[in-house]
Design brief:
The structure holds 2 protein chains of 2 kinds.
Chain A (H helix, E strand, L loop, with lengths): L6 H19 L6 H25 L8 E9 L4 E7 L4 H18 L7 H20 L3 H10 L1 H11 L4 H30 L4 H6 L4 H18 L8 H8 L2 H26 L1 H27 L4 H20 L1 H9 L5 H33 L10 H4 L1 H14 L6 H16 L1 H25 L7 H4 L6 H19 L2 H18 L5
Chain B lengths: L1 H54 L4 E11 L2 E9 L1 H24 L6 H20 L3 H19 L6 H32 L4 H7 L7 E2 L7 E2 H16 L8 H4 L5 H10 L4 H8 L1 H4 L3 H22 L5 H21 L3 H28 L17 H15 L5 H15 L5 H27 L7 H5 L6 H27 L15 H6 L5 H9 L2 H19 L2 H9 L1 H8 L4 H52 L3 H23 L1
Antiparallel strand pairs in B: 1-2, 3-4
Classes of the chains: A mainly alpha, B mainly alpha.
């Protein structure tokens, strides 16, 4: 359990310090190769450390593990307090894996300001891990806000033509949410007398206050997920972001929103959640259906995948909030764990699959500088290996069994039927709609005759790209045929959470 | 034995991996040997398992590995080996082996040779996992996996616009079925707290009278809801009206897979599934009635469409639809064994007919229009005789395998007392006539009469190589004979005891069994029956119309253009789906996007707010671009401060 090394601190600070080192190395001329290798080493070391975390993790307890606690600002009872449970640990590992992929994906693609690019991602990595590991609300908030800066820069510097608009929209949306989050946290501090998140969990709060806190959390986290109707920043941000930015946005940043739901909203305001679960479920189902239909008609591949992300994240929020209906109807939480665990698996899987989809678009964009579906056609004729990967990931995106995309959707649908037939029915439309937009895109981009001279001149993926896509594909497949190792990690924490949220705090 | 069970699906999986990843390196010959030998291994082991299971009575139900556990529910990959599974394994691996061998000849000149072997081996693996499953989740895995391979194979020639349209359509229509199927599975899980067949079937009777409210205030039987949802899945996979639309288009795929996937095995997965779920279906007469009526509609109306098709593969495809309807009707009449029996005989004779069609297509240099054929008998003797056997089996000629299975179904429907049974009986009876008519219309147009092909084609007509004719012969044998040998055991003895459960109240087969004295007696009884007369009449009419007086069909077509157009347009299902679902979905998507996202959310809410801020930002932007590094710099400083603070305070 408590290992000798301060593992979580290492996970946070190795990439941050490594990022600073990369910046320092990157000042000279012709420093790009050194920068790339150093970045890769930093990312790999962090990834290996996170594997230690995964394998040393005690699956039998819901208690926080690898805990580190030191006073930070004693005057305000603010601690540097870290720890992970079965909910946050997989997300930390996902972050370290994604960062390796991002560094590799940028290898010779990013040619300007390489050091700054790599450093931004490494620093962002440390901060995102900080978000998932923080047990002190202020520490959480600092990481939560600080990580916006590198992302803002990534979009603003390496982004597309409308990058300023996108970056601003992104900032505006998330800023609005963050302010309310801060207010809620300060209120909770005055009630609990500390900034400990676990103290907040135990805190008794009246229903009216709970509802206000719930709504503040909702605004903050719904923007990040993003949920309908505060989702419109995401397609713009994705379209303008460089490939790495899109991958991190899709794979990790969106998860911070749903992580907020499960770490803050559900355990701190369970009664408000029970009152307002219908709202969240409605918004989730709108995301699943409305957004999937919007995805269907996109002409820009990145927008299509962005909308598909929103639709898939609807499954996560749906899965989280099934417990209240089930508990109301049956008096037990039997079946609710399917929803929550399905949602958590969906978070991890979506990280792999949508990340991979953005990588695929990146591969094409690097070659043809277009994201428009209409500019492609018959890519598989000139890029057979790439085509195979793209078809594979599109199928995973459509939730094909045997890929990770299936596991989460399947479990959530199973749980949804327990709660209400119609929830399950509406959620299951994703089977049809997800296949429709994913495979229709594949049909138009990958299959068919060579559409034009640009497609005819395409070169298939090189070994580096093969390695990047291949390693993601490996995990998509592994998680699809054997999700048990991931599910196993979650059981104790999820069971504890469900027991906790069904006890009134009034 | 357990390791043998495991080896059976893994052998073709191994073949698929080798063919797929190493195919280019090891070359064409090595690839087909690996694929064929791995499938042959699966077949040989299936025979062993069949003998062990059926004759020595060794059944098996156990897990291979735990896929995942959630909410205390054990989701595992595991096998259930009983007589039904053992029989299905034999059929799947045998037909697959035949198709593998045939492919060596059929795909000889195709640049995607290795890829094709990889796909069909992968299909064999998936189909085996489907039939061997001991739980609903693995069933769904196999279900979607065969759908995936079907998608890949229909679009095998990915440069053809029609092929990649057809494969997308097939996948989406199947997904509509799977949408119902997964809800059915979710229903099973919700009410049984298990997805294991054994647990669910054992607990099923307890839920016979339990109701749920899908629409508030309306009490519906849980079993009916679950069975109907599961049946939606079967309708997708086994192409029942109105989810049949993908099957005719699937003929865009190479012919060997039309035989294997879209005739003999995958499309019968729905039939297999319902038979496997008999303990559930027996608890809902409503569901059985629906199954029977849908099957009857498919059997008759899809057969009717076979009459107006001129593409040799499409005729066989519509015939497949119609025959799947027959199997479905049998399920609805609680004659599960008869449905499975017909599944088996159909697998042989329909695979034979497809492969024979492929042999004709190769001989004709990829001309598929039967109006340009004729008189092929003398050029393709083996194809001719094997086709004749297949066609006779299809129309239920007395003594052939199809005769036994089809007659059993018709009798069972006749004995059924469920609502809709009379309608179904009329439909399947009329279907017999239609089947005979379109089958022999095609047969006569292809093999007899005037030679209508061009001179160049005629000069090059010759029987395809042995690798293609051998499978025809090997399939012709069971098409002819297997019915007589197995009817007694499969329908009227203990073959399916403990596998298929039938409520004595609607045990139609037992009713027929009372008069069953043996295969010969069944034939003698049937020869004088109405079905045989109807099928002879159909053949006679086809002979009269297409050989004796070829002017008549044309005259009828001119006279009844309205009816003809309805049939040629396949009742307008495609047009409706295109307009309503495909275009409608896109229109709705555009509405949500343009009106919802762009106009209301972004236009009014976001950008309205942003406008004010944007004006301030506009000024800042002048300075901003040059100073972006300052942001980064500030960030680094900030982090350093954070670090320092941390270090000072904690140590």
């Amino acid at each position: 359990m408590s290992s000798e090394l301060p593992l979580l601190s290492l996970l946070i600070w190795v990439p941050i310090v490594g990022g600073l080192a990369v910046l320092a190395v990157g000042t000279g001329n012709n420093s790009a190769p050194a920068v790339r290798w150093l970045s890769l080493i930093v990312a790999l070391v962090t990834f290996v450390l996170s594997l230690v975390l995964f394998f040393d993790f005690d699956r039998s307890t819901y208690l926080m593990q690898f805990v580190e606690k030191a006073p930070w600002v004693p005057v305000f009872d603010i601690y540097y307090h870290l720890g992970v449970d079965g909910i946050s640990m997989p997300l930390a590992v996902l972050t370290t894996f994604t960062s390796v992929i991002v560094v590799l994906a940028a290898w010779e693609v990013i040619r300007v300001r390489v050091a700054q690019y790599m450093a931004a991602f490494l620093i962002m990595e440390g901060m995102m891990i900080g978000v998932f590991c923080a047990l002190d609300a202020v520490l959480f908030y600092v990481f939560w806000e600080a990580m916006l800066i590198p992302m803002f820069l990534v979009i603003g510097i390496w982004g597309g033509p409308r990058r300023i608009y996108a970056a601003l929209k992104f900032f505006l949306y998330t800023f609005l949410g963050s302010v309310l989050l801060l207010v809620a946290l300060i209120y909770l501090y005055f009630q609990a007398g500390s900034f400990e998140i676990l103290d907040f969990h135990a805190l008794k709060i009246g229903l009216e206050a709970q509802i206000l806190i719930f709504l503040a959390f909702l605004v903050a986290f719904a923007v990040k997920v993003p949920m309908w109707p505060v989702h419109t920043w995401l397609p713009d941000a994705h379209v303008e972001a460089p490939t790495g930015g899109s991958v991190v946005l899709a794979a990790i940043m969106l998860k911070m929103g749903t992580y907020g739901f499960i770490r803050f909203m559900l355990p701190i305001t369970p009664d408000a959640s029970a009152e307002l679960d219908g709202l969240i479920i409605t918004l989730s189902l709108i995301a699943v259906i409305y957004i999937a239909l919007v995805a269907l008609v996109q002409e820009d591949m990145k927008k299509l995948i962005a909308y598909s992300s929103i639709s898939h994240m609807g499954f996560v929020t749906l899965g989280f909030f099934l417990v209240f209906t089930i508990f109301r109807d049956s008096g037990s939480v039997q079946g609710a764990a399917l929803g929550v665990e399905g949602a958590l698996v969906q978070m991890v899987s979506h990280g792999f699959v949508s990340g991979a989809m953005f990588l695929c678009v990146g591969v094409l964009y690097d070659r043809m500088h277009s994201r428009l579906i209409g500019d492609y056609g018959g890519v598989i004729n000139t890029m057979p290996h790439f085509g195979a990967f793209m078809v594979f990931f599109a199928l995973a995106n459509a939730g094909l069994p045997g890929t990770s995309g299936f596991v989460g959707e399947f479990l959530v649908i199973m749980g949804a039927f327990k709660a209400n037939f119609w929830y399950a029915l509406l959620a299951a439309t994703s089977l049809i709609l997800g296949a429709a937009y994913s495979l229709w895109m594949v049909k138009r981009v990958v299959f068919g005759k060579v559409a034009n001279d640009n497609v005819a001149a395409l070169k298939d993926i090189n070994p580096r790209e093969m390695l990047v896509l291949g390693s993601v594909a490996f995990f998509v497949l592994l998680l699809g045929v054997w999700p048990d190792p991931l599910l196993e990690v979650m059981h104790s924490s999820v069971a504890h959470l469900l027991a906790h949220v069904t006890v009134s705090k009034l | 034995m357990e390791s043998i069970y495991l080896a059976i699906p893994l052998a073709p999986l191994f073949g698929a991996i080798v063919a797929g990843f190493l195919g280019r390196r090891i070359g064409r010959t090595a690839t087909h040997w690996v694929a064929i030998l791995s499938t042959a291994t699966a077949f040989a082991l299936s025979v062993m398992v069949f003998i062990d299971t059926v004759y020595d009575g060794n059944t098996f139900n156990g897990g291979v590995y735990t896929w995942g556990i959630s909410d205390g529910i054990n989701l595992e990959i595991g096998f259930l080996i009983d007589n039904l599974t053992a029989m299905m394994m034999m059929v799947v691996t045998f037909v697959s082996l035949m198709v593998h061998i045939y492919t060596v000849g059929y795909m000889h000149d195709d640049p995607g040779y290795q890829r094709f072997f990889s796909y069909i081996a992968l299909f064999t693996f998936s189909m085996l996992m489907l039939v061997m499953a001991n739980n609903f989740m693995q069933l769904f895995f196999g279900w979607e996996a065969v759908g995936l391979v079907s998608y890949l194979l229909i679009g095998f020639w990915f440069q053809r616009e029609s092929a990649i349209y057809a494969n997308l359509k097939a996948f989406l229509v199947n997904r509509v079925g799977d949408f119902g199927f997964i809800l059915g599975i979710a229903g099973v899980l919700a009410y049984f707290n298990s997805l294991d067949y054994a647990d669910v079937f054992a607990a099923a009777p307890l839920l016979a009278d339990v109701t749920m409210q899908v629409i508030p205030g309306q009490d519906w039987s849980v079993m009916t809801v679950i069975c109907l949802l599961l049946f939606v899945g079967a309708m997708g996979k086994s192409a029942q009206v109105p989810l049949h639309v993908w099957l005719p288009d699937s003929m865009e795929g190479p012919t060997p897979i039309s035989a294997l996937i879209h005739a003999a095995t995958m499309v019968t997965a729905g039939i297999f599934m319902v038979a496997r779920m008999s303990p559930l279906y027996e608890l809902s007469e409503t569901a059985l009635s629906v199954v029977m009526i849908i099957g009857a509609i498919t059997a008759f109306f899809m057969g009717l469409l076979g009459i107006v098709q001129n593409d040799i593969k499409r005729v066989v495809a519509y015939s497949t639809l119609s025959q799947l309807g027959y199997m479905t009707v049998a399920l609805g009449a609680s004659a599960y064994a008869a449905g499975i029996f017909h599944l088996m005989t159909h697998a042989f004779f329909k695979a034979l007919l497809f492969l024979a069609a492929g042999s004709v297509i190769i001989a004709m240099h990829h001309v598929q229009d039967i109006r340009q054929m004729g008189g092929l008998k003398k050029y393709l003797p083996i194809t001719y005789w094997t086709s004749l056997i297949g066609s006779l089996a299809l129309i239920g000629f007395p003594g052939t395998s199809g005769f036994f299975s089809k007659d059993a179904i018709i009798e069972a429907v006749h004995a059924s007392t469920l609502p809709g049974a009379t309608f179904a009986w009329v439909m399947v009876m009329a279907g017999v006539f239609i089947t005979a008519f379109y089958s022999f219309r095609m047969f006569f147009l292809v093999f007899h009469g005037k030679e209508r092909m061009d001179e160049h084609t005629r000069e090059h007509l010759h029987e395809p190589p042995k690798v293609m004719t051998l499978p025809l012969i090997l399939l012709a044998i069971p098409s002819l004979a297997i019915g007589a040998f197995t009817i007694g055991k499969m329908l009227f003895a203990d073959f399916f005891d403990g596998v298929i459960f039938v409520d004595p109240a609607h045990d139609t087969l037992a009713h027929i069994g009372e008069h069953f004295t043996g295969a010969l007696g069944f034939v003698l009884h049937g020869v004088l029956g109405l079905p045989v007369l109807l099928s002879f009449a159909g053949v006679a009419l086809a002979w009269f119309f297409y050989l004796k007086r070829p002017d008549i069909p044309a005259a009828i077509k001119d006279r009844f253009t309205g009816v003809y157009n309805v049939l040629v347009n396949a009742y307008g299902f495609d047009a409706f789906n295109d307009k309503f679902f495909a275009a409608g979905g896109r229109r709705l998507g555009r509405l949500f996007w343009r009106a919802g996202d762009v106009a209301v959310i972004d236009g009014a809410l976001v950008n309205g707010t942003a406008f004010g801020i944007g004006r301030i930002a506009a000024r800042l932007r002048h300075v901003q671009t040059g100073y972006l590094f300052h942001y980064a710099f500030a960030m680094i400083i900030g982090l350093l401060v954070l670090l320092t603070v941390f270090v000072t305070f904690s140590f």
